[in-house]
Specification:
The structure is a single chain. With 82 residues, the chain is mostly helical. It has one domain. The protein has 3 helices and no strands. Helix 1 runs antiparallel to helix 2 and helix 2 crosses helix 3.
Length: 82
């Protein structure tokens, strides 16, 4: 029962950080002139920003970086926001 509670708490924090990640990337989407990015430039920036944010979180329970199919699966879920 304690494990279930711990997993539920960790899942709640993980979901919260996924939402915060999107907001932080959105706040960073500003051009060199200080104006917010729009259109294709914003889409490209958001994709790269989300990928970079997920890349740093791709760590297994043993503290090592994920690789192969595990990393691909994690990145796909993370970038989708889930």
């Amino acid at each position: 029962m304690k494990k279930f509670f711990l997993v539920a708490v960790l899942a709640t924090f993980a979901a919260g950080s996924a939402f915060a990640q999107d907001a932080s990337c959105d706040a960073k989407a500003v051009g060199k002139d200080g104006k917010p990015l729009a259109g294709a430039a914003k889409t490209s920036f958001m994709k790269k920003c989300n990928h970079d944010a997920c890349e740093t979180k791709a760590v297994g329970s043993d503290g090592k970086k994920l690789a192969g199919a595990a990393k691909s699966s994690f990145m796909k879920k993370c970038e989708a926001g889930g």
